[in-house]
From TrEMBL, chain A:
InterPro entries in the record: AP_beta, AP_complex_bsu_1_2_4, ARM-like, ARM-type_fold, Armadillo, B-adaptin_app_sub_C, Clathrin/coatomer_adapt-like_N, Clathrin_a/b/g-adaptin_app_Ig
Occurrences of domain Clathrin adaptor alpha/beta/gamma-adaptin appendage Ig-like subdomain (ranges): 780-890
Organism field: Pagothenia borchgrevinki (Bald rockcod)
Signal peptide: none
One GO process term, biological-process aspect: protein transport
Descriptive protein name: AP complex subunit beta
Automatic annotation (TrEMBL), chain B:
Membrane-topology annotation of the record: Peripheral membrane protein
Protein name: MHD domain-containing protein
GO cellular component: clathrin adaptor complex; cytoplasmic vesicle membrane; Golgi apparatus
Subcellular location: Cytoplasmic vesicle membrane; Golgi apparatus
Residue stretches making up the MHD domain: 176-417
Amino acid sequence: MQEWANQLCENRQFGSKMTDSKYFTTTKKGEIFELKAELNSDKKEKKKEAVKKVIASMTVGKDVSALFPDVVNCMQTDNLELKKLVYLYLMNYAKSQPDMAIMAVNTFVKDCEDLNPLIRALAVRTMGCIRVDKITEYLCEPLRKCLKDEDPYVRKTAAVCVAKLHDINAQLVEDQGFLDTLKDLISDSNPMVVANAVAALSEIAESHPNSNLLDLNPQTINKLLTALNECTEWGQIFILDCLANYSPRDDRESQSICERVTPRLSHANSAVVLSAVKVLMKFMEMLPKDLDYYGTLLKKLAPPLVTLLSAEPELQYVALRNINLIVQRRPEILKHEMKVFFVKYNDPIYVKLEKLDIMIRLASQANIAQVLAELKEYATEVDVDFVRKAVRAIGRCAIKVEQSAERCVSTLLDLIQTKVNYVVQEAIVVIKDIFRKYPNKYESVIATLCEHLESLDEPEARAAMIWIVGEYAERIDNADELLESFLEGFHDESTQVQLQLLTAIVKLFLKKPTETQELVQQVLSLATQDSDNPDLRDRGYIYWRLLSTDPVAAKEVVLAEKPLISEETDLIEPTLLEELICHIGTLASVYHKPPSAFVEGSRGVQHKRLTSSAGSGESVESPDTGSAAVSEAPPTVIPSQGDLLGDLLNLDLTPPTSTGPPPTTAPGMQLGAMDLLGGGLDSLIGDESEPPPIPLRTDTPQSPQPPHQSPSPPHYSPTEVAPGNHTGSLGGDIGGSPAMGTGFGAPPAAMPASFNAPISGGLDDLFDLGGGGGLTMGTYIPPKSVWLPAMKAKGLEISGTFVRRSGVIQMEMTLNNKAMSVMSDFAIQFNRNSFGLAPAGPLQILTPISPNQSIEAALPLSTVGPVMKMEPLNNLQVAVKNNIDVFYFSCQYPISMLFLEDGKMERQVFLATWKDIPNENESQFQIKDCHLNSDAASNKLQGSNIFTIAKRTVEGQDMLYQSMKLTNGIWVLAELRVQAGNPNYTISLKCRAPEVSQCVFQNYETVLKN
Amino acid sequence: MIHSLFLINHAGDIFLEKHWKSVISRSVCDYFFEAKEKAVEPENVPPVLQTPHHYLISIYRDKLFFLSVVQTEVPPLFVIEFLHRVADTIQDYFGECSESLINDNVVTVYELLEEMLDNGFPLATESNVLKEMIRPPTILRSVVNTLTGSSNVGDKLPTGQLSSIPWRRAGVKYTNNEAYFDVIEEIDAIVDKSGMTVFAEIQGVIEASVRLTGMPDLSMTFMNPSLLDDVSFHPCVRFKRWESERALSFIPPDGNFTLMNYHVSSQNLVTIPVYVKQNICFFETGPCGRLDITIGPKQTMGKTVEALMVTIHMPKAVLSANLTATQGNYTYDLATKVLVWDIGKLNPQKLPNLRGSLSLQSGAPKPEDNPSLNIDLKIQQVAISGLKVSRLEMNGEKYKPFKGVKYLTKAGNFQVRT
C-alpha cells in the first residue's frame, strides 16, 4: 500500500511538470553522482528518465562522458525509446571512450539480426556513427548482411553507412568490396535505395576525384531517371546532381533526358528546382539551336526561376546568385522578367544588392526607362552601400545602353543636386566613366561637377574629379586654380590622388603651357624629391624627362587619344562561367569561384566544361586555344579593345588589323614602346646575361617612350594605368615596383643601376647611369625565423633562412649562444629529403661562441644528397652538434631555392607541354589581397627564377604564362590570372609531378606578398 | 552533407547543438557572430558564410537563427530548405517555434533531429512519418506514458517510409470524412508616388486540410486553368495528368498540407484593390513635416476590403507624430520609428484619412529618404486573379466526404512609395 502511494506521488510529480526542462534542474549534491545512481536503478522508468537527463545535458554542451559505462549498461533493452536514447549518447561519446565503446559491439551485432527491420536499420545506422577504428572492423559483417537485407528500409540505411565507414577508414571499405555492393544498389528495385546509394557514392567520389565510382552509362541513367520520379525530394536532388555529371552521347539522348527532367521544375522544393535547372542548362548545350524543343525548353526555364524569388529571403539569395550566372550565359531566358528583380524596401540588404546586379545585366534599350526610374528611386534609400551601388548602376546603364546615356547623365545630375555627400562622390566617379565612353558629349556638366569639389573626401572621387579637370583642362577656365588647391595638401593625399594630380597637371601644362609652368615645376618636384613613393617618383621622372626632351612627343604620349572603355567588364570570364554553369546550385555558384578554388578536400576536382553541340556557332574559346593564341598568328577577328591591346603586347608588333583607336600620330613609336612593356624591359633589367633586345621599330632616336595614357577608371580599361593599382605598367617596368625597391635606396637621384637603355643626351642630370651592371633583380629572401629555440637546445638558438645567390643555394643562419658557457665544435647534418638537399661543405664556424654572442654562418647546399619524400614536401630535418649535445630541428625552405636560372621555356615547348600534361595534374589556387599589377608581379617572380613566357589580356584580365624548372629537372608551368582592380589572383599550375604544386603556390604567395 | 546544427537565439546564445558527424566546436559560430554584429539587423545576416574550414548556412525564423555547418560542397538550397523543414517540424510538434518551447522539449527535438538526418543525409522529413516514429507530446499522453511505462517512440516501421507515396500512412480512419481547400492569394506590388503600378504579381497557394479514411484519390479541376502557367506542386500531384488535362490528381497526405503554389505575373490579370493618396513631406525650415494619407477602393470585385492597415517606417529623425484618423487608430513606436495605422473595414462612402504633423529632432537635417507605405488588407471569398475551382472528385473509397473550397485575397508585400 505504502509503495503504491509512493509511486502515485512520483507519477504526479511527472504529470505536474510535463516538459523536458525538468531535466535541467540541478541539485547541489553533484549532478553526475545522482545521475549515476538513477541510471543504475532497477526501475525501468527511472532509468529512462535518467538517460533523458543525460541527453538533455549533452545537447546543451555539458560534458557527461563520465557516465559512459552506466549509460551503455542500459543498452540491452526492449524499450525502443530507451535504446534510441542510449544510441544517441553512444554516437556522441564513443570517440572519447574507445575502450568502453567496444562493449557495445555485441549489441549491435545482435540487433542487426533482429526481426524488426526498424531495429536492424537503427543498429546499422548507429554503428556507422561510432568513429572508433577498433570497432569498425567488427561492423563489416553486419553491414554486409544489411546491404543485402530483404527490407529496403534497411538497405537504404546501410547504403549511407558505407559512406560513413568510408569517412572513417576508406581502405577498409575498398578492401571489403563495399563499393561494388553500393554500385549494385543503383539498380535496386526501390527508388529510395537508389537515391541513397547515389548520395553515398557521390560523397565518396568527392574524396576520390579520379576514381570512376559513378560510372554513368545509358543503362544506369535510365535507372536513375526512373527512380527520380518516385523517390523523396531529397533523393531527387542527389539524383539530379548526379545526372548533371553525365555526358550524353548525342543530342537525341540529351533531349530525352531533358524531357524527363523538366517536370521537376514544378517541384515545391527549391533545391530540386535548381538542380533540375542545372541539368537542363548543361544538356541544352548539346541541342541544336534550330530545334523546336530548344525554344520550348528556354521558355520553360523562366517561370520556375521567377518563382524562386517569392520564397524566403535566404532561398532568394542563393537563387539570385545562380540567376546571375544564368543571365550571363543565356540572357534570353529572363529578358522579359525584369520587374521581378525590382527591389522592395524591406528586402534584406544581401538580396537588394544581388537584384541590382541582375537588373543591370538585363538592362536593354527596351526596358531602360523603367530601370532608370527604379535606380533613381533606390538612390534615395537609407542603406548607404545600396545607394552607392544604385548610383554606380546608373553609370553602368549609361555605358551599356548608349541610347540611355543622356538620361542617365541627367539622372546623375539630379542626384548630385541632392548634395548627399556619398551620392555626389559616387556620381562623380561614374560620370568620369561616362566621359571615357562618350567623349566630347556631356562635358557641359563639368561646371556643375566643379561646384562640388570641396565636398569630395574619398580618394576615388577626388581622383576622378582631378582626372576630369586634367582631361578637360582647356575648357575649364580656372583649371589651374582648381588643381593648385589640391596641391596644397599633396603629401596627405592617397597615392591614387597623388598620381592623378601629377598627371592632370602635366596635361594642363601641355594644354596651357604659358601660364602653368610654375605649377608643373612644383608638382614634379613634389613627386620626385619629396615623395618616398617609388611609383610616384618614377612617374614624375618620366614626365620630367619627356617634357625636357621633347615636348611634342610628350604631348603625343600624354594627350594621346584613349581607347574607349568597353561595355561590360564585370562579366565572368567565359571558361569560368561554363564551369560555374555546370555547378549551378552549389556553393561554387554562390561564390562565383570554381569549386577547386575553395572547397577543402577536393584538391583534384576535375574541371567541368560544357560540351556544346558540334556546329553550334556559340562555342566559347577553350583555354587551350587561348594559350595557343599567345604564340601563334594573330587572330583574324579582333573582338574588343582589351583583346586588341592584349595581343599587341604579346605578338611582336603585328600592326593592328582592324579599326580601333591606337594613336595615329606615331604608331611605330607607340607600338615599340608597348613591346618594351611586354618583355623588353624585363630582360633589360632582370637578366644581365642576355644582351637587352630592344625591338624599337622607330626611327626617332628616343629613349623608350612609356605609352602613358592618362589614368582611367579602374575597372574598365585593362591596359591603362588604373588609379587603383599603385604601380602602373610604367612604374612597374622601369624600376619602381616594390620588389625592386629593395634593390636600391630611396634617394630620388639614385636610379636603378642596371638601367642602361640608350638614352639621348640632356638627361644625365636626372639619371645617374654610373653603375652599369652587377645587381641581379631583387630576389625575395624570406626573413630569418627561429628554427631552434634556445629552450630546446640548452641555450643554442638558431634562426635562419634560405637564399639562392647566383645559382648557389645557401642556408644562412644566425647562431646565438644564450647559455652560460662557451659553445664550439659545430657540425651539421641533414636527413634525407625530397630534393636531395645536402651541405656542400662543413659548417664553417671557426671560433667558439661565447655566452651572449651571436655569429652568422652561411652554408652552401648541393642537391645531390639522398632523396626521400617528405611531408610537407619542402620540409628539411636538420641535426646540429656542438660541444654540449646534438639538437634536431626541422624547417621549411621556399621551393624557389630550387628553381634553376635556365627555367625559361620556349613558347612552343610551353604550349606543347601544357597540352601534354593531363588535366588531372592541374591545380588551381587563389592568391588573395595582392595589389601588384601583372607586370610588377611578373618582375617580382622573375627574381625567384619564375619566368614569364607570354602575357595575354582578355577583358581586363591579364594572363601570365610562366615556367620554372626544379633542380631535379621537373618543370612547372603556370598560368597566373590578374584582374585589374581585383586583389585576388588565380593561379593554375600544371606539372607532371602534381605534388609540388602546393609548395609552388605557397612560394608564389610569399614572393608576391613581400 | 550537413555536418552540424546550432540553434541561436536573438541575443546570440547557442541553446542547442546537434552533430551528425564528428563534433565541431562551437567556436565555429564566432564567424557567424561577427557577421551578425556587422549586419546590425538580424534579417541582414548573409545566409551563406565562408570560414577557413567550414561553410555556415543559416536561416532566420521566428527570431531564431538555425545555423548549419557544412564541410564539403553541398547545394546550399538543399541546406536552407532542410533548415526551414526543421523549423516547420518544430512548429508542427509544439505549436510554435520558440526558444522556450524547444528547451522545454529538448529531448524530443533532439530525437527528431536524429530522425531527420543520418550522416547529414535527409532520412525522414515528412511530418506524418515523423509523427509515427516520435509522437508529438500532449499532456494526456505524458500522463498515460508515465502510468503505463510506454514511450513516445513508435516501435513499428513507419508505413510511409518506403511506399511510393511516402506522404501518406496506411490505415487512416475518420468518422467524419472531410476535405477542405483554401485558395489564398497574396498581392505583391510596388506602386509609385503618382499611383502607377511599377510591379505587381500574385503569389497563390492552395492549402488543404484533408481528413479522409483509407486511400482516397482526389482530382480537382479549375474553371480557368490557363491562369496557371507557373506552378509548383506537392510531390503527391501527378504531373502527367496536369500536363495533359490541367487537372490536379493526387492521393493526399493526411492532415494539413500545401497542395500547390502558383504565381501570376501577367500584368493585366493582377488588379490592385485599393488606391492610396499620400503626401508626406518635411519642411526645409523648422523641425517638422506633414503627413496626409487617404485610402479608397479601386477594384475589389464587389467585396469589402477588411483588416486594412498601413505601416510606415519613418526616417530616424522623426521624433513624434501628431495625427488625426477619421477611422481606426494609429500608433507611433518611438524606438523602431514605425507608424502603424489600423483602419479595419474600408467604407467606400466615407474614405479613411490620416493627417497631421510630424515633428523632427531639432537640428537634424531634413531626411533624405522618403518612407514607403506598406499596406495590409484582406478580401474574403474572392481570389483576386479570378481563379476558381470547378469540381472536386474522390475515387477509390466508397464513402461520401464533406468538401469545401474557400477563397481569400491578402496583401503580401504591397508597397506604396512616396
